[in-house]
């Protein structure tokens, strides 16, 4: 992975930084003006119009320094950004260097024939040996052109190498770079106003030492090499060699005019006459270029063999990263399985890999859920994955089969692509989730560090799988919670708001929903002035399906109770209607009855429902255990019709009937159930109480019994008390005021 | 976590499922899986031993209802034996004795298979 440094060029184009633009413009104007002034000064020198004047010379040199500092800053602004690619950095010095060499080649040969080539040094370059004045117009042209070109080349070289040396910059590396530039400037400035015909003296030479020392330090800032691809590394070597060749052909601090075969003869001499500090600075830049390119070439050469290892590490990291990403992203288990199985292969750690996942709920042996670079069928044919996983199970260490075909659990022959195997157990929170099995074609294919890397995958993969499980559980929980909310709402709406108004009868009813809504339902309906029907039902199952069946039950009750001549007929018809709706494993227990105030009778039938508790004034209590199958248990209806029974009774004042659901009698404290006996006892002891009181007393007793714990199931209680017709119902329709109870929650 | 388990035994051609613990909406799937496994293995003569069954909810009863027809069509039956009184009451309340063979002793259920293979439900014991 070559480090691609992202520079958002579009945004750079969009927002023009006017401050920077202005700064660049000023720098450009200064540089151009300084350069033109420098040209003018040297023309005057050549024309002999200028008296020797130290003041003027000093002004010239200061102007030149300012000019080139401006030029440097101008270029620095352009190349300050981090490079897009490493290779791109090398192209700039190569291109500019070639231009310099070509232009320099021709420029340095202007008017060459007029001079004596055998004369060395300044004279041959066309300067007065004593004063350093240019002797010909050609010399002026050459000096100014070559100085500008060489300075630009050296500046660009320096700036581009700065880009490289400061990749992965630290405070130290940045400081060392700045110190090097400062040392170079200091060394250059020691030669300020130095007559060009003299060589560097001792202290000026000594001033070069710290600059060169810092160059060596900076030359080892080559960390960027590691991340290059093999191809880029070769390219970097070629380009570095090219730059090195350019630099060496320019030469460092030599009076190279003596070598006519030099590409740009006398460049140092021209520079020195132009500006001694600039000459020193450019030459130091060339020295740094040579050192840096040399270390680069050597470092790249050393790193070439490790490129593939580095690339593999990069892939490993990327593969692990993709797994950790998945932890947050994947709602799709099969995609997660595929990624986990593929990552060891993608990381280059295995030739094939597959994932086995244990089914935690069924305790089934682990099965292969995804395979990469090997068909699932081949896996099953060649390897007994379940047995391998069983052996690795619970261990944190991978199981390694160096010679897989020799193992009894592997039936692959050599050549089937399974030479060695590693089984990486996946454990999370103490559970064994399964295993990744990685295969290589060769035996002994896994090195210890490969196995370690695979183990790290295993940890990541286990985490990802565990998260996926948790996520799924959470979704399921939320779904259930929503369902329960809906069910509770439906249940509340289905229960009646008012109780029937029949003379001589007191009614109280209450239904307490459990945490998980069951399917309790009760309702009443006037059949005529003196008769009303009542129903108490319990749908098996919970949540929305229970609520749905409750709604169905309500519909059946409302429609059938008017037309059914007897409770038995009602239940037979209800069984027929409901059986068409109910799933095979769902049924409804129903208690249905009709109270006739005129005839003073009550008739009740139960379809698999809790038997009603009946008490009278004398204190006799009993359960009406008539026969009757739950609705939906016998879809044909034949057996249902044959077996259903009715109970009836001539009402006596003081008769109490308690209809309820199994939430009441099956409520438990430990292993003990509330039970029928306790219900009958409470009924007997409180038979003189109002209907509403009996209901409250029963609920309070149940609360005491379960010690105010949560009810396991919905609990419904309907109490009907017969007071008798104290008034002639035909003459006065006066409700029995004192017994009326409207206590629905 | 789960306080319900199913044990498998066999007595000749009859598979005996020992239920242990509390069978409710949360554990019903385990009994479902057990009966499904018997069916898959063509073992359709099933006796469910409820000696260690402490509690059953309507969802637990639903499991028997869900499978009884298929098992009978395959020529077998699900007979229920050794229920504790409290658990039997729940079966009884809904009228299960009219649909299922519910007997006191496991041996009795097994021998019923031997005498009348694929026996029909009990003829409605009075309750």
* SSE pattern of chain B, N- to C-terminal: EEHEHEHEH
* Strand element count of chain B: 5
Mean pLDDT of chain A: 84
Helix content of chain B: 25-40%
Number of self-contained structural domains of chain B: 1
Instruction: Give the beta-strand count of chain A.
Output: 17
Count of helical stretches of chain A: 22
Largest interface: A-B, 31 and 24 residues
Our estimate of the beta-strand percent of chain A is: 5-15%
> Low-confidence parts of chain B lasting 5 or more residues at pLDDT below 50?
118-127
- Portion in beta strands of chain B: 25-35%
State the separation between the terminal residues of chain B, measured CA to CA: 36 Å
Oligomer type: heterodimer
Instruction: Characterize the main sheet of chain A.
Output: 5 strands, antiparallel
Total count of helical runs of at least 4 residues of chain B: 4
Mean pLDDT score of chain B: 85
Structural class of chain B: alpha/beta
List key phrases describing it.
heterodimer, A: alpha+beta, 5-stranded antiparallel β-sheet, 22 helices, disordered C terminus, B: Transcription Regulator spoIIAA, 4 helices, 5 strands, 38% helix, globular
Could you explain how this protein is built, in words?
Chain A has helices at 9-14, 18-47, 54-78, 86-107, 121-125, 137-165, 171-189, 202-219, 230-250, 267-274, 276-303, 307-329, 333-346, 376-382, 385-392, 448-494, 543-563, 567-579, 638-643, 662-665, 675-685, 691-705, and strands spanning 352-359, 364-372, 399-401, 420-428, 431-440, 505-512, 519-526, 531-539, 588-596, 601-607, 613-615, 621-623, 646-650, 656-660, 668-669, 672-673, 715-722. The two termini of chain A are 70 Å apart. Chain A has three domains: 19-309, no CATH class; 331-473, 2-Layer Sandwich (Beta-Lactamase), CATH 3.30.450; 495-737, Phosphatase 2c, domain 1 (4-Layer Sandwich). With 745 residues, chain A is α+β, with helices and mostly antiparallel strands. Helices cover 51% and strands 14% of the residues of chain A. The longest helix of chain A is centred in the middle third of the chain and has 47 residues, at 448-494. Chain A has a five-stranded antiparallel sheet, sandwiched between helices. Chain A has a five-stranded antiparallel sheet with strand order 6-17-14-11-12. In chain A, strands 7-8-9-10-13 form a five-stranded antiparallel sheet, covered by helices on one side. Chain B has 127 residues and is α/β, with parallel strands linked by helices. Chain B has a single domain (4-115), classed as Transcription Regulator spoIIAA (2-Layer Sandwich). Chain B is built from four helices and five strands; from the N terminus they run ββαβαβαβα. Chain B has a five-stranded mixed sheet, sandwiched between helices. In chain B, a hairpin with a 2-residue loop joins strand 1 (4-11) and strand 2. The longest helix of chain B is centred in the middle third of the chain and has 16 residues, at 58-73. In chain B, 48% of the residues are buried. The chains are: A alpha+beta (745), B alpha/beta (127). The A-B interface holds A 362, 516, 538, 540-542, 584-587, 589, 607-611, 625, 627-630, 633-634, 639, 643, 662, 666, 668, 671, 673, 713 and B 25, 33, 54-55, 57-59, 61-63, 65-66, 69, 86, 90, 93-96, 98-99, 124, 126-127.
